[in-house]
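Try it yourself: sequence plus S-adenosylmethionine, in.
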Amino acid sequence: MILEPVLAFSHSVLEKRVQPGDIVVDATVGNGHDTLFLAKLVGPAGKVYGFDIQEIAIRRTKERLEKERAGQNVVLFHCGHEELLHRIPEKDHGKISGAIFNLGYLPKGDHTIITKPETTLKAVEGLLQITAPGGVISIVVYEGHPGGKAEKEALLDYVQKIDQTRARVLMYRFINQKNDPPFCLAIEKTAPAPDR
Ligand code: SAM
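Structure, out:
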């Protein structure tokens, strides 16, 4: 297929920007698929900061990384991503080149524990503040579960109001699929114009 599925697109956005040695964030580690992807992308010289409120998600992510011998560059925080400005060391503020959110509930977990509008928005805004110029934030949004639509609406309202001189925001969405398929929001923080 020519058109990338949404999850693949969320990774492609990061692959275009993130380099070995970079500092990146997985705001919702869940089962660790995205954390592993990021850990490989930045390599041993880079760093991944990962967040999740569920102990089981942190454990599954650690296990996945250990199995793949890929966790040396990963720091996992068992807390909400809304705390990221306090948890990520100040020395790394302004250096984050990429971040990913995969919203909703933990697959093969408790479907009543979901990401929430207020905390998601706080985390996205915090990340936008500490992302490097030209850095990207990729957000996979699900609206099919209870609570999903409210989060989607709050997020769309927030991202559509981001000043266009601060960042560019893209929505990647298939518009003829049934059952509320996920979509991706990609935010690219503005980089200063190169000197002439
Ligand atoms: N990225 C994951 C992967 O690759 O497997 C999937 C993430 S799953 C769809 C969503 C995760 O968000 C769940 O594990 C859930 O516990 C977590 N979550 C919910 N609220 C959160 C919050 N405030 N901060 C961080 N994680 C949160």
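One thing you can check immediately is this: The pocket of S-adenosylmethionine is lined by residues 28-34, 51-54, 57, 80-82, 102, 104, 106, 113, 115, 119 (CB under 6 Å).
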